[in-house]
Amino acid sequence: MAEPLFCAGGCINGPGFPSEKNSYQRKQDIIDYAAKASSRKNPELDRDVNCITGFLQDKTASIADNVSEARINEILEKTGKSDPELQLNCGACGYKSCRENAIAVACGMAEPEMCMPYMRRLAQQRTDRIIETSPNGVVILDRELNIIHMNPAFQKMFLCSNGILGRRISYLLDADNFEKLAVGAAEQLEGIRTKYGVKYHEQVYSLRDEEQYVGIFSDITKAKLGEGQIDLIKNQTLIHARELLAHQISFSQEMAHYLGKSTAQSEELVTRLMNLYEEETT
Ligand code: SF4
């Protein structure tokens, strides 16, 4: 069967066509020819066509016979499946079992990277390595804001060790940004703070699916603050001022309690404003 293209540049405009006919005439020629040809008997169409189907022998089965157990075990080990319990046989690679996949890899018919759990493990290892070698401090908290992981840079920055794993982050640092994440007030927050003589930029965000919170900390003690960072501190101060106002309104009925707490928060606000003023004048 031929399907002629009638478009410009298609079959009827090929270089072999005589130029004395325009494309409409050429198109009509083909239509006329097709009508005539269809009325003619085509001996080719009278031939019997063999439509018998059947199953062929699975080639991998015969090739697999030539793959040694040692080679299969080597591939299973390379992809972290030497222990039979780790052979999930999930079929995500397209093979029925991890062993079949290993045989196919040995025969050059598959790649180890086709194993999804293996690739996931590799990605996880890479992520761990990036976190462990990062110059920024990284801390991971559980849903109760307890520390479950700190990278070496974080421990160095805040002079702590794995001995405080399991303790609340507020034991070590100002935790208000993490607390806002925990109550769902934000998904991501940042700020500039000073603690233990270290001035640091803090960026925190939540991993909702894992019910975990991540904090990334950069030591900016020696960095000169730029315009953007000063703006950030100003914004923080404004936010704190608004929080203070909201606090005053909602607790206006509880004067005694209000006076004590309000004074403390006002002090903090004034301290921040003074720090801001000092930073701008230095
Ligand atoms: S994807 Fe990996 S774990 Fe799953 S069957 Fe294939 S080789 Fe085994």
Q: Can you give a write-up of this model?
A:
- This protein is 44% helix and 12% strand.
- The chain has 4 domains: 1-37, no CATH class; 81-133, no CATH class; 135-219, PAS domain (Beta-Lactamase, 2-Layer Sandwich), CATH 3.30.450; 227-281.
- With 282 residues, it is α+β, with helices and mostly antiparallel strands.
- The longest helix is centred in the last third of the chain and has 27 residues, at 255-281.
- The relative contact order is 0.05.
- The protein has a 5-stranded antiparallel β-sheet.
- The protein starts with 22 loop residues before the first helix and ends with a helix.
- The chain is elongated and about 95 Å long.
- The model is unreliable at 251-263 (pLDDT under 50).
- A hairpin with a 2-residue loop joins strand 3 and strand 4 (198-207).
- Bound molecules: iron/sulfur cluster.
Quick overview of this protein structure:
It contains 9 helices and 5 strands. With 282 residues, the chain is α+β, with helices and mostly antiparallel strands. It has 4 domains: 1-37, no CATH class; 81-133, no CATH class; 135-219, 2-Layer Sandwich (Beta-Lactamase), CATH 3.30.450; 227-281.
